[in-house]
Amino acid sequence: MALADVTLRRENEGLGGDLWDRSAFGITLVRPDASDDAGGRTATWLHVSPRKLDSIWDSGRAHRTVDMRFPDGKLFMAVEHDELLGYMVRAPRFGRHIVAAEGRRITSAVPRIAPWRWERLFLAQVLPLAAVLQGLEVFHASAVALADRAIAFVGTSGVGKTSTAAHLVARGAKFVTDDVLALETSDDGVVAYPGAPRLAIDAAEVRRIPVQAREQLGPLLGTFEKRQFAPTPVEGARRLSLVYFLQRAAASQEPRIVEVDEPRRLLGAPFIPHLRSPARLVRHLDVCAKLARTGRTFVVDVPPGCRADDVAELTLEHAGGVLL
Amino acid sequence: MAAAQSLPGPLAGTWARIPAHVVYRAFPHETVVLNLQTGKYHGLNPTAGRMLELLERGFSIGETAELVAGEYKRPLADVEHDLQTFCADLRARGLIELSPHGTR
Predict the structure, then answer these.
(1) What is the pLDDT confidence band of residue A17, given thresholds at 50, 70 and 90?
(2) Is residue B73 part of a domain?
(3) How many CA atoms lie within 13 A of A124 on its CB side?
(4) Which domain holds residue B33?
(5) Residue B41 and residue A276: Cβ atoms within 8 Å?
(6) A288 contacts in B (CB within 8 Å)?
(7) For residues A133 and A102, is the Cβ–Cβ distance under 8 A?
(8) CA geometry: angle at A190 spanning A188 and A193, to 5°?
(9) How far apart are CA B76 and CA A236, in angstroms?
(10) What is the C-alpha to C-alpha distance for residues A293 and A190, in angstroms, rounded to an integer?
């Protein structure tokens, strides 16, 4: 481990843990003793000891819906479902969380490590699950805001959603979310809610961002596989106007953007796909149908070796032309 | 998926009902049908989407064929054949139920 990383970790050991009373994915996290008049969608967040959590949750009664493992067979993440109690999300070294069936209460037993570390599971899986249970729809996407409109980037893992969004933020776009996008239909379209104040990006991509522009990504919390930043999300929901589907295109020489009209592309990008209740499936269809009518969708062909900052530059120019 | 089967007898006086576990939404150039029991999406072209919409509104299969033939200026016999095949396919996928009684 590089000395710089050690120093950084010590300096930032106390960072994170700032999620109380903040909103992400359309949900405001409130303390157990908060008054009932917080307004909007809220989730009461309670921290308990591991022993207390064990007394609440009976894994023998629950049904395991997700079991993700490392190549060596060790558990990466599991989700269990109990019809009465809700969902248990757990990952070794990242804590365990019970999300009540209606998504309005989260009970967590977190490890004694820097908050920004265990918050990764909480923000990437637990809070989005609560959002879905409260009636929002979540997609596997990153997003920025330009000209007061949200622009989303959809694609398989590793195709460059986060990197493209990060380069756009470095160029002046507002940060909306990284990897998980919460959406809801409105009278005149689909609105995108700001996500968590976290952005995880490869170190190589960070180096391609001019030093002065890196401030736009927020404080660097540390490194865990990737550089973990804490950008400030845009305030309030924004109408989602453009969706870019990033895809690898071996035959292309240069990145290019083509408008498409394929509902299946939208339908195929749900986050938390294991949650397939009828209500969720219908809501997902509703959001996609509304988005197809009120937004525009494009495919970005990304050739091998194409840099994310080049994709960002191309989409910035394209989105500017479409929106303005 | 079960293979689509020919429907027995003339369907002019038959009605199609969309079960509670099936929903559909119109997209700009496609209708997407969702079977909530299987979680599967099914895509329909605009003509098929229009047929489904008319069937859900309570028109019999015969009435739907006449309306679609008029709207798309197609020979009635061709539309009846297409609609019969379409209904057989939807029924095989559990997306409609057929009834000798209308609800309109």
Answers:
(1) low
(2) yes
(3) 18
(4) 17-97
(5) no
(6) 25, 27, 32
(7) yes
(8) 130
(9) 54
(10) 10
What tokens appear for B9 in the block?
């007898």
For residue range B39-78, what is the model confidence (pLDDT) as tens digits?
899 999 999 999 999 999 999 999 999 999 999 999 999 9
Confidence at A224, pLDDT banded by 50, 70, 90: confident
Q: Taking CB atoms and an 8 Å limit, are A267 and B26 in contact across chains?
A: no
CA-to-CA distance for A236 and A238, rounded, in angstroms? Answer: 7
Tell me whether residues A289 and B27 touch, CB distance under 8 A: yes
- Give the chain B residue nearest A282 (alpha carbons): B23
Residue B20 has pLDDT above 60, yes or no: yes
Structurally, chain B folds into a number of domains equal to 1
Domain for residue B10, yes or no? no
Q: Average pLDDT in the B96-101 region?
A: 88
Give the Cα separation of A167 and A144 in Å (integer): 10
List the CATH number of the domain containing B41.
1.10.10.1150
pLDDT in tens, A230-280: 999 999 999 999 999 999 998 878 899 999 987 778 888 899 999 989 999
Contact A138, A25 (CB under 8 A): yes
B2 in any annotated domain: no
Strand locations in A6-158 (E): 23-24, 27-30, 42-47, 63-69, 75-82, 86-91, 95-99, 105-109, 137-146, 149-154
Beta strands in chain B (DSSP E): 15-17, 22-27, 30-35, 40-44, 97-99
Q: Domain spans of chain A?
A: 3-133, 137-323
Among B21, B30, B34, whose Cβ lies nearest the Cβ of A285?
B34
User: Is B56 within the bounds of a domain?
Assistant: yes
| Alpha-carbon distance values, A87 to A83, A193, A279, B23 (Å) | 8, 23, 17, 27
- Residue A39 zone, left/alpha/beta (φ > 0; ψ -120 to 50; rest): left
Residue A308, both tokens: 């994310």
Q: Which DSSP category does A83 fall into?
A: T
3-state secondary structure of A234: coil
CATH number of A137-323: 3.40.50.300
